[in-house]
Amino acid sequence: MKNTLLITGAEGFIGKRLVRQLEKKYEIVGVDAKSNGNITDRGLMKNIFETKNPDYVVHLAAALDNNIWNNLKNNIYGTMVIAGLCKRYGVKRLIFTSSAAVYGNAHKADERRRLHTINCYGAAKKHCENIIRKKRLPHVILRFSNVYGKGGQGVISKWKENAIAHLAGELYHTRDYVHVADVCRAIEKSIKSEAGNETFNVSTGIETDLAQLGRIMDIGGLEMAKHNQKREIKFSSLDNDKAQKMMGWKPSIDLKTGIEQYELL
User: 92-121 in b/e burial notation, b at 16+ Cβ within 10 A?
Assistant: First the structure.
């Protein structure tokens, strides 16, 4: 008999991919605000936990912007609802998907690094992590670097899907780009990994600036733009040694391959 896996944000970029990957291994229960309900509706979520009795929960649902209200309601309160119900109904493990944003500006940050958030989204994710730890429920926290791939919303997807004609931004700003297929493998490993109640970076550890990204994607028009946003992360990369050693996970798709085989991967 298959274990039941509840996935919040099941119709999002990562969620759709994860459902396809795991639907033959688990009895999937998907929740998404686009279709069947919002995680902030505690009555709805309580009914799902009571009737579906999930063994594991992957909490992907989140507001991805820096709007204070969205972060308070969807990220912080939504996580309070999910964590509380996981505790109440004895879920075997909650997988919480956090973000590199909890580190702020960071060069190859490891999980021991002091968190220094500089925007609402990062602060909300940090608070959500603390909510889960204080609940003392079985969990794994995964801090994703910049996830890309077909169907995503980032600059790579926008270029590949002809939503932008050129790259605009500070050319020296860096990100650590990790492919969605590698992210889903990390989530799958974390569900039954022996390394419980741990926090892991899911990343490549490689920083790529906007100018380099433009060359990899063979974009002719690179437009320098000064945003001067105090809350904008300027450089970011995460060390993934802990995930390699304790979960047996490491990225398998480099950025060049991920872009060249964008439609296939």
Answer: ebbbbbbbbbbbbebebbebebebebbbbb
Tokens representing residue 120 in the block: 């609402």
227, containing H or E segment: none
Q: Checking DSSP bridges between strand 106-109 and strand 27-31, what pairing results, if any?
A: unpaired
pLDDT at residue 1, as a whole number = 86
**Total residue length of the chain:** 265
Domain ranges of the chain: 4-147+179-203+239-251
Element (H, E) at 46: helix 42-52
On whether the 4-147+179-203+239-251 domain is CATH 3.40.50.10260, my answer is: no
Give the whole-angstrom CA distance, residue 51 versus residue 46.
9
Cβ-based neighbour number of residue 124 at 10 Å = 27
Phi-psi category of 90—alpha, beta or left, where left has phi over 0 and alpha has psi -120 to 50? left
Report, as ranges of residue numbers, the positions in the chain whose pLDDT lies below 50: none
Phi and psi angles of residue 242, each rounded to the nearest 5 degrees, phi first: -65, -40
List beta partners, residue 199: 141
Q: What one-letter code names the amino acid at 30? A: G
CA–CA distance from 216 to each of 113, 188, 257 (Å)? Answer: 31, 29, 10
Beta bridge partners of 177: 146
Please return the burial class of 263, using the count of CB atoms within 10 Å of its CB with bins 0-12, 13-18 and 19+: exposed
Closest CA relative to residue 36, chosen from 60, 55, 10: 10
